[in-house]
Predict the 3D structure of the following.
Amino acid sequence: MSKSLFHFGDLSLDEHQRVLLRNGRRVPVPAKALSTLLVLVRNSGCVVEKEVLLEEVWPNEYVEEGNISQHIYILRKALGESTERHRYIETIPRRGYRFVAQATESRRKVHPPE
């Protein structure tokens, strides 16, 4: 099995370890917010509809659309975005969100525990 490591700016998102790093240091992000970021980064440059985020991050759970907004707020704070300029996550009104930063992906093999 292989997992990705995404790099953007001074940040790295490790899909296997499920951590966000800034200059090699862990940035505290709640699990669902991290899952939201993974969906956005995997679909970099494309609009991710709110319904898709709900299905990917909260499968088989009933949550309100406001949960997405709250997690985007948490992510923007963790990513160091200002309120007037979004370098990483763009809001597409009434549709969803788009990851707008240039992200590079490296893949590595991950061996399941024996």
About this structure: The longest strand covers residues 2-8. The helical segments are 31-42, 50-57, 66-79. The beta strands are 2-8, 11-14, 19-22, 25-27, 47-49, 89-92, 96-99, 104-109. The chain is about 30% helix and 30% strand.
